[in-house]
Amino acid sequence: MAIASEQSKGIGQAVHRKEDRKLLTGKGRYVDDLKLPGMQHMAIVRSTHAHADITAIETSQAKAMPGVTAVLTGEDLEFAAGVPCASNPTGEMVHPVRPPLAKGRVRHAGEPVAVVLASDRYAAADAAAMIEISYSPLPAVVTPEEALADGAPRVHEELDSNVALVLAHSTDNVDDAFAKADVVVKQTIRNQRLIHVPIETRGVVADWNTASDELTVHSSTQVPHFLRTFLAIVCGVSEAKVRAIAPDVGGGFGSKLNAYAEEFVAAAASRKIGAPVKWIEERSEAMLATCHGRAQDAHMELAATTDGKVLAMRAHYVQDYGSYLQMLTPLISQLTLLMSPGAYAIPEVDVTVTNVYTNTVPTDALRGAGRPEATHAIERIMDILALELGMSRTEVRRRNFPQEFPFTTAIGLMYDSGDYEGTLAKLLELSDSKADFERRRQEAAARGKRLGRGLSTYVEVCGFVPSDVARSALGLTPGGWESSTVRMHPTGKVTVITGTSPHGQGHATSWSQIVETELGIPFDDVEVIHGDTAFAPYGLGTYGSRSLAVGGTAVHLAATKVREKARLVAAQMLEAAADDLEFSGGTFSVKGSPDKSVTMQEVAFRAWQAFEMPEGVTPGLDETVFFDPPNCVFPFGAHGCEVEVDEETGKVEITSYIAVDDCGNVVNPMIVDGQVHGGVAHGIGQALYEGAVYDANGQLLTGSLVEYVIPSAVEIPSIQTHRTVTPSPTNPLGVKGIGEAGTIASTPAVVGAVCHALGVRDLDMPLQPETVWRAMEKGGTA
Amino acid sequence: MKRAVTISVNGVSHATGVEPRTLLVHFLREHLNLTGTHVGCDTSNCGACTVWLDGMAVKSCTVLAVQADGSEVTTIEGVSANGELHPMQRAFHETHGLQCGYCTPGMVMAAIKLLEANPDPSDAEIRRGLEGNLCRCTGYENIVAAVRAAASGVTV
Amino acid sequence: MIPQAFEYEQPSSVADAIAMLGKHGGEARVLAGGHSLLPMMKLRLAAPDALIDIGRIASLRGITDTPDAITIGALTTHAEVAGAEVIASGCPILAETAAGIGDLQVRNRGTIGGSIANADPHGDLPAVLLALDGEATAEGPNGRRTIAAADLFVDYLQTSLSPDEILTEVRVPKASNSAYVKFNRRAQDWAIVGAAAVVHGSSARIALTGVGSKPVRAAAVEAAFDGSNTAEAAGHAADGLDAPSDTAASGEYRAHLARVLVRRALEAAMAR
Lengths: 782, 156, 272
Description:
The complex is a heterotrimer. By secondary structure, chain A is an alpha+beta fold. Chain A folds into three domains: 34-138 and 199-251 and 256-289, Aldehyde Oxidoreductase, domain 3 (Alpha-Beta Complex); 293-464 and 631-777, Aldehyde Oxidoreductase, domain 4 (2-Layer Sandwich), CATH 3.30.365.10; 481-627, 2-Layer Sandwich (Aldehyde Oxidoreductase, domain 4), CATH 3.30.365.10. Chain A is 29% helix and 25% strand. Helix content of chain C is 35%, strand content 25%. Chain C has helices spanning 14-23, 37-42, 78-83, 85-90, 92-99, 104-109, 112-118, 124-132, 149-152, 219-224, 230-234, 251-271, and strands at residues 7-9, 28-31, 50-53, 63-65, 69-73, 135-140, 143-148, 153-155, 158-159, 166-173, 178-183, 193-200, 203-209, 216-217. Chain C has a five-stranded antiparallel β-sheet. In chain C, strands 11-12-13-14 form a four-stranded antiparallel β-sheet. A three-stranded parallel β-sheet of chain C has the order 1-3-2, covered by helices on one side. In chain C, β8 and β9 form a beta hairpin. Chain C is globular, with a radius of gyration of 18 Å. Classes of the chains: A alpha+beta, B alpha+beta, C alpha+beta. At the A-C interface, α3 and α20 of A face α12 of C.
């Protein structure tokens, strides 16, 4: 790899983003910014019941409203398949069929039942309000406890029970280890149901040209290629006739890692009426109908020796799937299972996951997707073990870190590289001494505040590869590879076409940095195209902190191929052997004769002229690489924070937050820090503020941003970011993912700090003031 | 029934008819094609739709276009001139104060007004001043840094 | 997100506005800043036949200082109230309350008259007006009348204004020893509970936000207060309360908060 010079904008530099200018000036193009000739606006009427039979849909009044083009129900639209699920961990799970528009029965409040198409969104909303749906209510199961009860009403009648799937992994000597342990600790640790809330809701513009039978779909999606494939399958049309485009996307956090009913309905409706159809989700719809996340309880048990060595873990998770399988619903708890031992060498494990249907919104990936759940559970039980042993929380962790890498866990994953002691040591070095903390704690007590500190030491997994393992270990339908094209034009400018689909992660910048480093051309000479299936080779999109390790590496490899081909052309131009050429600063020169040189731009021009090409070298400089890494990458780190709890009200303030992350080599430290900031804030949201709440009838009580509280700048502390660098051996850039690390690490650190402040074992999130106050009332001590 | 309004937007006067229930944000986006102003919620919480109405930051999802009749509106498209970024926009760029960019126009519009009212704010005052603008990407760290940088005039 | 269609009227005087309200026979709503009404209309929780937009009636704006009281036009925004020197010095509770409503943008549009006429029990100003023993002026077809705060708030989102009356101004007595303490989860949010305290020597008037279907006087605290026993008196803040439960807090916790916040409000008021 070429080394970036100090002035460069290559790998390792905190380069300002090339994406910013349009976004800062209002010239971004999000789905709702699109207008097509004749476009009709779609409004959706959704189920008001959690579980009911639809007995009648009265649409005549709506059809008569001004501006209305059509009113469609499940009976009016034909689909070749139901809403897809691309994960089947055991290969044997039954996937209940879910029509994109409900037919006959609804299984959660908010399920789409009928749509209106009208000339503008006001007319559509008015007509939607005139549709009358009659229901015959059925008993609903709202929580997994209810769903698992004897004789519980079934969410899917065709299944034997509400248990969708049981996953299990166990080593041989768990019971023995528990029998000979000095200490056993047990705790139920809950990850509450969350809602993603990207500030841009979902949206789609579907344009089915009925003459050419071509479908173009603009969607606020993280996965345009998956969407295209599923549009083809569900709508019954050739994939080659479908073009999916992710324009600028206003955040996703997993909520847009999906192919949703509304996308299929918009496409089918466009075909039906012969005009483009736009649907922009309202925030209240987003709360009701976009997949939720987490909703997992962990029943944890650790067996340990008195000197803090963990001998075995039993973990039983109960995952609330909600009413249907969305694209990756079954993957999430599978990831929890895989990461259940966290950053610790636990020799014996017995892990089961019971996955349950309920009459609620389906759950799926939410920033971290199964790993925050796993991490929270293991980090909390490690704190509890420390409490039980009277040992410091750092020490009990340190005594269980793997010492050598690669490290194969009892689950069977191979952690690629790590230095867990290193990140923890750096965190401690950056934190106040215990004596300082105790002094401040005394002072705070005099002010009616209880101080507490918490930490977490996490490891996570990203880039679900290699593809065969993605199938065998995760039951994924797609693999885990990524593609990239690097096309050097005759003038030496470069277009990168990536299969990743960024929505805030800054790939245009980072991929340009990689190309600058590889090809020695200026950063500003690189353009990055993403998110359009008409241009890009198949790609898997952006989720799971995979983009740099898999997609960025594909860019690097494609750029390397371009450079090596250019070397052959340059050799011909310089009348030298390719092996005798040096490449530096975008120039090939003959070793020992630096005046005999040719620039990359000159080589590019010649390559496209294809004059005097070397033997066997084809014209052009245009390389595509599909990269399927040999293993996942495993970022890790140590986060710590301090909280101040108001004794009288229970309100928690985070007074300091320090993140030490190791994501291997870093392409753009500014972007990496930004990902950590956002991730930490999201995890703080889970710890303190957020939670989707249903009533006993399955009605969502947190249906807007008034009740579902995502934190503002006032609630989020300043977040200090620090790093150690342990390169990954699984890709040539030595990089790992960072998008989810902050979320994974912060939640247990914050909850641990509050528990420390109160002197309690554990608390159920979110730690609303009332929750904390009640814990203090019950006798938590300072 | 439509009602005649004259609204000056980014210095250009628009005389047109609007249905009274038309929200100012939809007037800007749908009627004038000024799509830089975004909608992120339906409860006036998120602030993505923030514009200036007669010089004051307001949530344009909670103002009717008819209420803005005779007023001057400035949107994100109107804060910079001649292709030069406003110092606040520049500060957001240089401090990485945006990721997906969706909350950004509203955030910038609020941040400029914050500094007009308080040219030398503390970090706490910056955070408090942006309480009406929600961001899900940045954790606010670099947004606060951007406002601080714009306040001190320290942009590269 | 899309309000139901309505007729829109834009009166240029209070008399015009009253006539228009009469014309619509109780099916019209008065639009001031719109920051209570429009959000409800967007969610179609409110769907009036007509909006009478009083926003252009200049006589409804402005702040008038008299020796004992301050009169504030109904259309005066929270930002204007928060920024007025005469209010900050003469009635600090009102300035600090206005400064804490919603967020910057909301304060730029939301009005004192709109907030009070909306009578949301989670809104801050109703309790503050009640604690101040302030009054509202209403104008209707039968002329102008003054309604004491104690008589104004009837029930959830309900006042004693008749459908053809408009709240034109708010009058608050000066009260330098006064404070409002608001408790919420997120800075921009409505109060879970708020406590308003106005202290005059050894007596106090206390009112609470968020503990019932309307703002509530804490009579037991007032009875117990002797001018210095803040903690003891505040202990009575929840006497007789039946505070509601929702996703933000249970009634029991609200009762607890009432006791804490009343003490804090009394202390803050007395420290001024």
